[in-house]
Design goal:
Layout lengths: L8 H18 L24 E6 L13 E5 L6 E2 L4 E5 L9 E4 L3 E2 L4 E5 L15 E2 L10 E6 L10 E2 L6 E7 L4 E2 L15 E4 L8 H4 E4 L44 H5 L11 E12 L6 E5 L17 E5 L1 H6 L5 E11 L2 E11 L18 H5 L5 E2 L5 E5 L3 H4 L2 E5 L7 H4 L5 H13 E4 L32 E3 L3 E6 L2 E5 L9 H4 L2 E3 L14 E11 L11 E4 L5 E6 L9 H18 L3 E8 L10 H14 L5 E2 L13 E7 L4 E9 L9 E10 L8 E7 L21 H22 L4 E6 L7 H8 L3 E2 L9 E3 L2 E3 L2 E5 L1 H4 L2 E6 L36 E5 L6 E8 L10 H13 L5 E5 L9 H4 L4 H9 L4 E3 L9 H11 L3 E3 L3 E3 L10 E6 L2 E9 L15 E3 L2 H12 L11 E7 L12 H6 L3 H8 L6 E4 L5 E7 L7 E7 L5 E9 L6 E10 L5 H7 L1 H21 ...
Parallel strand pairs: 7-8, 10-12, 17-19, 23-26, 28-31, 36-37, 44-45, 45-46, 46-47, 50-52, 52-53, 53-55, 59-66, 63-68, 69-75
Antiparallel strand pairs: 1-2, 1-13, 2-7, 3-6, 4-5, 4-9, 9-11, 13-14, 15-16, 15-18, 16-17, 18-19, 20-25, 21-22, 22-23, 24-27, 25-26, 28-43, 29-30, 31-33, 32-33, 34-35, 35-36, 37-41, 38-41, 39-40, 42-43, 44-56, 48-51, 49-50, 54-55, 56-57, 58-60, 59-62, 61-66, 61-67, 63-64, 64-65, 68-70, 70-73, ...
Helix pairs in contact: 10-11, 12-13, 15-23, 17-23, 22-23, 23-25
Length: 1580
C-alpha cells in the first residue's frame, strides 16, 4: 500500500473552505464546485438534516382518511439534499434483527421541501394519497407500534434496542407505541388502526427525543415534492385579466367531451341512471356481432376484469353498443370512443351511438372476469356486458331450444335442475328450494345470434353446437375454452360467444366443449330376470298416408315426417319415416337386454279397424328380424277389452326363452281411466322355474298434465292439470293390483309405466301409502326433461314382497337428455342431419330396467370399503356418505361397510381441530361395521386409541399383527364376525409393520408390530378350523393397512406390482387361499384387481384400494352358493363419489341427513377455532402475482420459499429425516399470509395456505438428481402449465437459461454457498405429493431412503409459524435467469453476465435497482465489508454486469457473487481465473487529505481527493463509517467524501484507491490519510 501523498496547498484550501462552509452554514456538505456531483453529508440535529416529519400508519383501515400508509420527510436546511441511495426502513416493535421492510429513495428534496413515501394498505377505505415520490407497498408498518428509520443506505440495518442515537447511517429514527427501539423515549401512537391519527413532528424540530418531538394529530396532511400547500386559500381576484380575444384560432377538431366511465353508465341498479341521456364513453371492444341479428358490439373499460370480488364490484364495466355499422367496422381489441344515447332494451343497458372513433392511445387489455356464475341477481347485473371466463363446474340442463334457436341452458355446479315436485311435495320447502336453485344456477349459452333454425328460411343453416357423433346431452359437463360475454336477452342471463357462432367458424369461436355421457347399455342390474318399462313415443304402424285428413310436420324440403293432426294417427307420416322410428326403438329394446318390457304409447290398432295387437305384432317382428331368431313374443290382448279406448295403449313383450306368461292378461276397465289408457296386467314366471316364482306386472299410462278443467284444472302447485284424475287412477290401480295379485296367487307385484306424475306428487303418494316402493327413485337418475328440469314421469313400483327380489335398478338415459334434433321426427329438419339408427333419442322418455332374483338364488354380499379417509369433514363429506348409501341401497340386507384404517389422523381442519370426533360421528352414522387399525390411529398413542377413540366408535379396531411388547399376545381385537344376510363374514384387520417409524415412539412403547400376512393367515386358520369355540366364518375378508406402491391411474398392473416385491407382493402371493376378498390401504393408491389365489389353478379373488379421502368407495360383490356358501363369482370396482345433489341425497337417505347435520356443526365449530391466532407477519407473504392476480405458478414467491424453509427446518433433525433442502410445489399454496390490520395470522388463515393435508417426507437425491429436479420445473410438452416454479429453502440458489435445450437449462446450482456436487447425496424435505412424483417431478421416485415423517403439513406449518413469528417476507430470489456463464477469465480481463428475473412478483416485493459483483475465492465466504468489483443498474429486473478481474488476481477457482439491492437476491456462479503476464503497473497521481469535525453531537470525517492525472480516474474512498466510489473523476476534479456518525470518534485512517489507464497501460495506487479523533462530549 502506498503511503506517500502528493501535496498541493491551493486545492486543499479551496476544498476545506467549501467543506466547512457546508458544515457550518448549510448543515449538509456539498462537493466542491469542481465536481459535477453532489455528495451528501447525512445526519445532524436540530434543523441541520432531513427528518421524518409525519407518519400515518393505518391507511385503508376503518375511518381512514387515506387508502395507504405514508412516511413524510422534511428538509429544514437551506440546501437541496440528494436522497439517492437512502431508504426508509421499518422494524417491528419486538424485532431485534435487521429491519423487516425497506423503501429505497431516489431524487432530491428541496430546501424547506417535503418528500412523500407511500407504503402498504390495510384495506380500501379513504381517499388516494397525493402523488408520492416513492411508492413502496412493501413498507407495511404497524398502525400502533414499531420503529421507522431514515437510513443513508439501502441495505437492511440492524438496530440495537433501547434509546438509539449516533448510529452509523441512521439519519433519523422514530419509535412509537411500545417499540423496543426509539430516540430517548417512544413517541405516542394511535390506540388502534381505526383511530385516524398521524404522528407529527412539531415545527420540524429534532431533539433526539421521540416523545418530545412527536404528537398525535387528527388532521392527516401528506405532502411530497409535487404537493403544494395542502389547504391553499383562494385568491380574491383572478391573477390575470382575461384577454378580449382568443389567443389562437379554434382548431377544426372539437375538444373531447367529458368522458363518462362505463361503470357510471351502467350504474349499480338494474337500469342505467343515465337512460335517455347522451353520453361519451370509452372502452375496448370485446365482442362484435355484425351478423346474426344482434347488430352491435360490446365494449369494456380498459384493464377491467380479472379476479373480481363481487361483494365490492357493484357496477359493470361492460356495455352493449347497438349499431350494425359499428359492429361491421370495429374490431375486437380496439380502443374506441362512443357518443350516443343510453337506453334499456328489455333490461339490457345499451348505447345507440351517434358517433364513434378508434382512439390512438393504447389501452390496457381487458381481462376476462374469472368468476363463478353469481346466484345473486345484483351480482349478475354487476357483470352485465363484461367478458367473463366462467369459473367452477357447469353442465347442460336443457337442450330443447338448440334445435330452434341454437342455444343451450346450463346450470352451474355438477347436477342438472330438477323438477320441484320430483324432490319435494307440492308447496314444500324442498320444492321451493328447487325453484330457487334453478333461479340461482340457470344461465343460457347462446350462439351470438337471433336465428330461428325452425324457420324454413334458416333450415339450410347448420345448427350450432350440435354435430353428428358429438352429442350435447343434459347432464354433460361443460368446459369453457374461451371467454364469453354475460348479457341479458329474451328474459334470461346469457353467455354469448364473442361473435356470431356458425358451423364455419366453430373451431375458433365456439366457447365450450361438452363431455360425452352416453353409455352403450344400462348398468348391470343383476338377477336372473330383467324387467323394463319403455314409452315408445307414439309408435304407430298405421301411417298418416294410409288415412285421410292428416296434416303433417315436414322436413326442410316439404316432405312429410310425422302426423300433425286431422286424423287419429299420431306417429310417422309414411313408411320411410316409420322405418326410421322403428330402427331406433328396436336398437333401444335390444340394448336394454330385458326379458319383459312394458310398452306405453304404442298404437291401439283396433282404432283403425285392425287387430288390436297389429302394431305390437309388427314391432315384435322387427325385433325378431334384427335378432335373426324368434327371440321375442308379445302378450296378446285379453278376450275382454274396454268398449272405449284411446288410440294409444299399453302392452307387454317378452323373451320366451327366459320368461313365460301365467294366465291371460287383464285390463282394468274402470271409469277412473275414461281420459287415460287402461292398465294392463300380466303374470310372468321364469321359463325354467315354477309358478312359485311368478310375479305380476301392471303397465300404466295415466292422464297427461296438459289439459283439464273443473277439478282437473291446473291449480298452480306444480302438479299440472288433471291431477285429480291421476289420483283417482292411482287409487283404482291399487285396488286392481290387489285383485290380480290375489288371483295369480302372488304378492310380488310391480306397477310400471308412464304415470305422468313426478316422484313427490299426489298420485304417487297414493301408491307409496299402499306399501309400494318407487325403485327408480333410488338411482338418482330421471326419465324425462321438461322446461329445463329433469324429473321422472316413468316409474317402477314394487310391492313389499317384490322388493325382496330386486337386485338392481337403472334408468338408462338414452332419450330425455338427448337433443330433439336426433329424433326421427326431426330428420332433415336442418342442413345437419343428426338422426342415426342408434338407440339415442328413440323416444322422449327413458326406459327403466330392474333386475329380479326369482326362485332359490345365490347369496350376494355387498362389501363396501374405504381406506385412508383421514378425517375428510368438508364440502365432499355428504357426497361421500351419499355414495355409501346409494351402494348400500343396491343390497340393503347384504351390505357390510368396512374400513382399512386411517379413518382419523392427518385430517382436515374441521375434524382435526375437534380431535376427529366429527369423523367418528360420521362413520357411526353410516354404521361402519368394523375397521382395521391404521398407523394414524396411533398418532396420539395406544392409550388414546383404546380409550377415547374406541369409546366414541360404534365399531371395533382390528389389529391382528399388533402384540404386547416382547410377546405374541394380541394387544388389539384381531377379527370380527359380522352377520350379513345370514352369512357369517369373518373380517381380519392388520396394520403396516412400519408403524413404529410413522408415529411417536413413546405412544406405542408397549407394542410390537408383526408381519401382517402371517397374522392374517394365522387368524384365517382359526376361523376355518371347525371349532365354534374360537370363532367360525363362512366367508373371510382381510383388511391390510398396507398396499401397492402404485395403482391403475399410475399405469401400474398387478403383475408389475407383484414383480417389484415387498409387502404387497406377499399380500398377493402368500395370503391364505381361504381368504375370499382383500381390501388394502395406506399407500393411497387406487386399483381394483383380480389377484391369483395361491395354490389354485387359475382361480382369482378381488384385491382393492380406493385411493384416499373418500374419493371412491371400494365395492366387492361376492356371489355365494346358497347351499355351501362358497364364493362362485365376484365383482370388484372403485365407485367414484356421487355427483347427486346434496339436497337430493339428504332427502333420500336418512343416514346422509344425519351426516349432513354432523358436518354442518363441525364446520361451524371449526370456524370458531379457526379464528384463534397462531402467529404474525410483518408484511404480506404471498404467492407470485401477475396482472393483479395471485397464484402465478410460473414464478417464484416469498410464500413458496418460506414454506420450503419451514419444511427444511422441521425435518432437519436426524430423527425426522435429516433434511438439508426444502422443496415446495407452487400448486400446494392455496392462500396467502396477508398482514391485514394487525399482522396476526389465525389458525384458519395458516391452514388455508396448506389445505391438502399431505404428510412431510424426506428423500435422498444426488446432486445430479437435484439438478434434474430443477430441470423438471419445465413440464412435459402439452402440459397445461409449461413451467412450475418450485419454492426452495434459503440455502439454495441456481441460474438458468430458458433458451437452452430441455435438460440443459439449469446452468449452475449452489447449496450452502458451494457449487452442487453431482455425486453428493442431499436430503430433501418435501410433501408426500411431490415425493411420489406429483406435478411431473418424477425424479423424486428415483431417490432413495424415502421416509414419511408421520407429520402432517398443516400441523408442522402451524408449529413453525408459532415458533418463528413474526414472519417477514424474504424478497431474495432463489433462481435467476442468466446468460452464458463466464467460465474462465484472465486476470485483468473483463467478462459480462446478463441477468434477468431478479425481482419477485409477490406483494410488497421491491424492484431491484442495482447489482453488486464480488469475486470470492472458492471455499471462502464473502466478506460483507468488501467492496464490489463491479456494479450495474437493474431495470425491470434485468441487469448486464461487466466484471473486470483485478490484475494480479491469483489464478484458481472463484465464485462470482452478485447481490441485487434492495432485495438481497444473490447469484453465485463459478469462475476460473487464469493469471497472465500483466504489463507493469504505475501509480496514479492524486492529492488527498482527511480531517474530522464535530458539531452538535455529530462527528464527520471529510476526505478530499483531487485527480492530478490527465485521464479520467476511478476513486474509492473507505473509512470505518462507509465507502464511497466515484467511477469517473475528470482531470483536475476534486471530490469530497463525507462520513457522518453520532457522538465522538477515535482517530483513524481513510483509504483512497485509484485506478486508471495511462497510455494504454493500467495504473493503480492506494493512499492512506490519517484523521484526528473527536471529543466524546455531546456538544463538541
Amino acid at each position: 500500500m502506498f503511503s506517500s501523498h502528493q501535496r498541493n496547498s491551493a486545492p486543499r484550501r479551496a476544498a476545506v473552505a467549501a467543506a466547512l462552509s457546508g458544515a457550518l452554514v448549510l448543515g449538509q456538505a456539498a462537493a466542491a464546485t469542481a465536481t459535477p456531483r453532489t455528495t451528501v453529508l447525512p445526519t445532524a440535529v436540530d434543523g441541520s438534516a432531513v427528518v421524518i416529519n409525519e407518519a400515518y400508519l393505518s391507511g385503508g383501515s376503518a375511518n381512514a382518511p387515506f387508502t395507504h400508509k405514508f412516511v413524510e420527510l422534511y428538509n429544514p436546511t437551506a440546501s437541496a439534499v440528494d436522497l439517492t441511495g437512502w431508504s426508509v426502513q421499518y422494524r417491528s416493535a419486538t424485532g431485534t434483527g435487521a429491519t423487516n421492510s425497506r423503501a429505497a429513495l431516489s431524487g432530491t428534496i428541496e430546501p424547506g421541501g417535503y418528500y412523500l413515501v407511500s407504503g402498504g394498505s390495510n384495506g380500501t377505505n379513504g381517499a388516494a394519497l397525493p402523488e408520492a415520490d416513492v411508492v413502496a407497498p412493501g413498507l407495511n408498518t404497524s398502525g400502533t407500534t414499531g420503529t421507522i428509520a431514515l437510513v443513508a443506505g439501502v441495505d437492511p440495518v440492524t438496530l440495537p434496542t433501547g434509546s438509539v442515537t449516533g448510529q452509523p447511517q441512521v439519519v433519523d429514527l422514530v419509535g412509537y407505541g411500545s417499540s423496543n427501539t426509539f430516540e430517548t423515549a417512544v413517541a405516542p401512537a394511535p390506540s388502534a388502526n381505526n383511530v385516524p391519527r398521524s404522528l407529527n413532528r412539531t415545527d420540524g424540530v429534532d431533539t433526539d427525543d421521540n416523545a418530545a418531538d412527536f404528537t398525535l394529530l387528527e388532521t392527516v396532511t401528506p405532502q411530497g415534492s409535487s404537493t403544494g400547500d395542502p389547504d391553499p386559500e383562494p385568491t380574491e381576484e383572478p391573477t390575470e385579466e382575461p384577454t378580449e380575444e382568443p389567443t389562437e384560432e379554434p382548431t377544426d377538431e372539437p375538444t373531447d367531451p367529458a368522458v363518462v366511465a362505463i361503470a357510471d353508465v351502467q350504474g349499480t341498479g338494474p337500469a342505467s341512471p343515465l337512460v335517455g341521456q347522451t353520453v361519451t364513453t370509452r372502452g375496448v371492444v370485446t365482442a362484435t356481432y355484425p351478423t346474426g341479428g344482434y347488430d352491435g358490439l360490446y365494449v369494456q373499460t380498459p384493464g377491467s376484469g380479472g379476479d373480481l370480488d363481487l361483494a365490492t364490484h357493484t357496477a359493470s364495466d361492460g356495455l352493449f353498443v347497438y349499431s350494425a355499422a359499428a359492429a361491421a367496422e370495429l374490431q375486437v381489441g380496439q380502443h374506441v370512443e362512443i357518443t350516443g344515447t343510453v337506453s334499456e332494451y328489455f333490461e339490457l343497458t345499451q348505447i345507440t351511438p351517434s358517433s364513434y372513433r378508434v382512439l390512438d392511445e393504447p389501452a390496457e387489455a381487458v381481462k376476462p372476469a374469472n368468476v363463478a356464475y353469481p346466484a345473486d341477481e345484483a351480482q349478475r347485473e354487476s357483470l352485465e356486458g363484461m367478458l367473463v371466463q366462467p369459473a367452477g363446474d357447469y353442465l347442460v340442463t336443457d337442450n330443447y331450444s338448440t334445435n330452434f334457436y341454437g342455444s343451450l341452458t346450463l346450470a352451474s355446479g355438477t347436477a342438472p335442475l330438477v323438477q320441484p315436485t320430483d324432490v319435494g311435495r307440492p308447496g314444500s320447502p324442498e320444492a321451493a328450494a328447487a325453484v330457487a336453485d334453478a333461479e340461482a344456477r340457470s344461465v343460457v349459452l347462446d350462439d351470438g345470434a337471433t336465428t330461428n333454425f325452425n324457420s324454413n328460411a334458416n333450415k339450410g343453416t347448420p345448427l350450432p353446437y350440435l354435430t353428428p357423433g358429438s352429442p350435447v346431452r343434459v347432464g354433460a359437463p361443460v368446459t369453457f375454452t374461451t371467454p364469453v360475454v354475460l348479457d341479458y336477452r329474451f328474459e334470461a342471463w346469457t353467455f354469448q360467444p364473442t361473435t356470431h357462432l356458425t358451423a364455419e367458424n366453430a373451431a375458433s369461436v365456439q366457447p365450450a366443449t361438452f363431455g360425452n355421457t352416453r353409455t352403450d347399455a344400462p348398468e348391470d342390474v343383476g338377477g336372473d330376470v330383467r324387467l323394463a318399462t319403455f314409452n315408445v313415443l307414439n309408435y304407430f304402424t298405421t301411417t298418416g298416408d294410409e288415412l285421410s285428413g292428416c296434416s303433417y310436420y315436414t322436413d326442410r324440403e316439404g316432405s312429410p315426417l310425422t302426423v300433425r293432426g286431422g286424423c287419429d294417427a299420431r306417429g310417422a307420416a309414411n313408411q320411410e319415416s316409420l322405418d326410421r322410428q322403428e330402427a331406433k326403438i328396436v336398437a333401444a329394446i335390444e340394448a336394454l337386454d330385458a326379458d319383459v318390457v312394458s310398452l306405453e304409447e304404442i298404437e291401439n290398432s283396433a282404432a283403425f279397424g285392425k287387430d288390436r295387437d297389429d302394431a305390437l305384432s309388427n314391432l315384435v317382428d322387427a325385433l325378431n328380424a334384427a335378432a335373426g331368431t324368434d327371440a321375442w313374443a308379445f302378450v296378446p290382448s285379453p278376450a275382454d277389452v274396454p268398449a272405449s279406448e284411446d288410440v294409444i295403449r299399453t302392452a307387454f313383450i317378452y323373451r320366451p326363452a327366459a320368461i313365460e306368461t301365467v294366465g291371460e292378461s287383464t285390463i282394468l276397465d274402470d271409469p277412473a281411466f275414461s281420459n287415460a289408457r287402461q292398465p294392463l296386467a300380466q303374470t310372468f314366471a321364469p321359463a325354467d322355474g315354477d309358478e312359485d316364482d311368478a310375479f305380476t306386472v301392471i303397465v300404466n299410462h295415466f292422464k297427461s298434465k296438459g289439459s283439464g278443467s273443473g277439478e282437473d284444472a291446473d291449480t298452480g302447485d306444480g302438479q299440472g292439470a288433471s291431477n285429480a284424475s291421476r289420483v283417482r287412477q292411482a287409487t283404482a290401480l291399487v285396488a286392481f293390483a290387489d285383485e290380480v295379485g290375489e288371483a295369480a296367487g302372488t304378492d310380488e307385484v310391480f306397477l310400471v309405466g308412464d304415470f305422468n306424475s313426478y316422484t313427490q306428487e299426489d298420485p304417487l303418494v297414493v301408491l307409496a301409502e299402499a306399501g309400494y316402493t318407487n325403485l327408480g327413485a333410488t338411482t338418482g337418475e330421471h326419465t324425462y326433461l321438461f322446461g329445463g328440469y329433469v324429473g321422472s314421469l316413468d316409474h317402477v313400483f314394487a310391492s313389499e314382497a317384490a322388493v325382496e327380489d330386486v337386485t338392481g335398478v337403472d334408468i338408462w338415459n338414452i332419450n330425455s337428455v338427448e337433443p330433439i334434433a336426433n329424433e326421427y321426427s326431426r330428420y332433415n329438419y336442418n342442413a345437419t342431419i343428426l338422426y342415426d339408427e342408434t338407440p339415442y333419442r328413440s323416444s322422449d322418455h327413458d326406459p327403466i330396467v330392474v333386475g329380479l332374483s326369482t326362485g332359490t338364488q345365490p347369496v350376494e354380499l355387498n362389501l363396501l370399503g374405504i381406506n385412508d379417509f383421514h378425517g375428510r369433514i368438508d364440502a365432499n363429506t355428504v357426497a361421500f356418505a351419499g355414495t355409501v348409501e346409494q351402494l348400500r341401497a343396491q343390497n340393503p340386507e347384504g351390505t357390510a361397510f368396512l374400513s382399512v384404517g386411517d379413518n382419523i389422523g392427518a385430517s382436515v381442519f374441521a375434524s382435526a381441530s375437534q380431535d376427529d370426533q366429527p369423523t367418528i360421528d360420521v362413520l357411526n352414522a353410516l354404521e361402519l361395521a368394523t375397521s382395521a387399525v391404521g398407523n394414524h390411529e396411533f398418532d396420539k398413542g395406544l392409550e388414546d386409541l383404546v380409550g377415547r377413540v374406541e369409546d366414541a366408535s360404534d365399531w371395533n379396531h382390528l389389529g391382528a399383527n399388533v402384540y404386547e411388547k416382547g410377546t405374541t399376545t394380541p394387544a388389539l381385537r384381531e377379527y370380527d364376525i359380522l352377520e350379513v344376510d345370514g352369512v357369517r363374514v369373518g373380517v381380519i384387520g392388520t396394520v403396516t409393520e412400519e408403524t413404529p417409524a410413522l408415529v411417536t415412539p413413546a405412544g406405542i412403547a408397549t407394542l410390537d408390530f408383526g408381519d401382517p400376512v402371517d397374522a392374517v393367515n394365522r387368524v384365517t386358520e382359526q376361523l376355518s378350523d371347525g371349532d365354534e369355540s374360537n370363532g367360525e366364518a363362512d366367508v373371510v375378508v382381510a383388511l391390510f393397512h398396507e398396499g401397492a406402491p402404485a395403482g391403475t391411474p399410475d399405469g401400474a398392473t398387478l403383475e408389475e406390482e407383484v414383480a417389484a416385491g415387498g409387502e404387497f407382493a406377499r399380500i398377493v402371493t402368500d395370503t391364505d387361499a381361504r381368504v375370499d376378498a382383500i381390501f388394502t390401504g395406506h399407500t393411497h393408491k387406487q386399483y381394483a384387481w383380480d389377484a391369483p389365489v395361491p395354490g389354485t389353478d387359475g382361480r382369482t379373488r378381488p384385491i382393492v384400494q380406493t385411493g384416499s379421502y373418500g374419493e371412491n368407495i371400494g365395492q366387492v360383490t361376492l356371489i355365494l352358493d346358497p347351499d355351501t356358501l362358497d364364493v362362485t363369482a365376484y365383482t370388484v370396482q372403485n365407485v367414484a363419489r356421487t355427483t347427486t345433489p346434496a339436497a337430493e341425497l339428504v332427502a333420500t337417505y336418512p343416514r346422509v341427513a344425519e351426516v349432513r347435520t354432523i358436518v354442518d356443526a363441525a364446520l361451524a365449530e371449526a370456524a370458531v377455532i379457526g379464528n384463534q391466532p397462531v402467529g404474525s407477519v410483518t408484511a404480506d407473504i404471498t404467492t407470485a402475482f401477475v396482472d393483479g392476480n395471485r397464484d402465478d405458478r410460473s414464478s417464484e414467491s416469498t410464500l413458496g420459499n418460506l414454506v420450503a424453509q419451514s419444511l427444511r427446518d422441521t425435518l432437519a433433525p436426524a430423527e425426522r429425516g435429516g433434511a438439508q433442502i426444502g422443496v415446495v410445489n407452487p400448486g400446494g399454496l392455496r392462500a396467502d399470509l396477508r398482514h391485514g390490520e394487525d399482522g396476526v395470522i389465525t389458525y384458519a388463515e395458516a391452514n388455508a395456505v396448506l389445505p391438502f393435508v399431505n404428510n412431510l417426507w424426506s428423500v435422498t437425491l444426488t446432486g445430479e438428481q437435484f439438478t434434474e429436479l430443477l430441470e423438471q420445473q419445465w413440464q412435459p410438452d402439452g402440459s397445461s402449465r409449461p413451467f412450475l416454479n418450485l419454492g426452495l429453502s434459503d440455502n439454495v440458489s441456481y441460474t438458468y437459461d430458458p433458451d437452452n435445450a430441455r435438460g440443459e437449462r439449469i446452468t449452475s446450482v449452489t447449496v450452502d454457498g458451494e457449487p452442487i456436487d453431482p455425486a453428493t447425496e442431499y436430503r430433501i424435505a418435501t410433501f408426500s405429493f411431490l415425493a411420489t412424483g406429483g406435478d411431473n417431478f418424477t425424479v423424486f421416485t428415483e431417490g432413495t431412503d424415502a421416509r414419511d415423517s408421520g407429520l402432517v403439513d398443516r400441523e408442522a406449518w402451524i408449529s413453525y409459524i408459532e415458533a418463528s413469528s413474526p414472519l417477514s417476507p424474504d424478497f431474495a430470489r432463489r433462481g435467476v435467469q442468466a446468460g452464458d456463464l463466464p467460465g474462465t477469465v484472465d486476470a485483468g480481463a473483463s467478462t459480462t453476465l446478463d441477468l434477468a428475473r431478479l425481482d419477485l412478483t409477490s406483494l410488497g416485493s421491491p424492484a431491484n435497482t442495482e447489482v453488486s459483483a464480488y469475486l470470492v475465492p472458492a471455499g471462502e465466504e464473502r466478506d460483507p465489508a468488501a467492496a464490489p468489483v463491479a456494479t450495474a443498474p437493474v431495470t425491470d429486473g434485468a441487469a448486464s454486469v461487466t466484471v473486470t478481474v483485478p490484475a494480479g488476481t491469483a489464478e484458481g477457482e472463484y465464485a462470482l457473487v452478485l447481490v441485487a439491492a434492495p432485495s438481497g437476491t444473490t447469484v453465485q456462479v463459478p469462475l476460473t481465473v487464469e493469471s497472465v503476464d500483466a504489463p507493469p503497473t504505475r501509480g496514479v497521481h492524486l492529492w488527498t487529505e482527511a480531517f474530522s469535525v464535530k458539531l452538535f453531537g455529530t462527528s464527520q470525517v471529510y476526505v478530499l481527493t483531487t485527480n492530478l492525472e490527465r485521464t479520467t480516474t476511478s476513486i474509492t474512498v473507505t473509512t470505518p463509517y462507509g465507502t464511497r466510489t466515484y467511477g469517473s473523476v475528470r482531470p483536475g476534479q476534486t471530490v469530497i467524501s463525507v462520513f457522518t456518525t453520532r457522538g465522538g470518534i477515535p482517530r483513524g485512517t481513510a483509504t483512497i484507491e485509484a485506478t486508471t489507464t495511462v497510455e494504454g497501460s493500467p495504473a493503480a495506487q492506494t493512499y492512506v490519510e490519517p484523521y484526528r479523533g473527536t471529543s466524546s462530549w455531546w456538544w463538541f
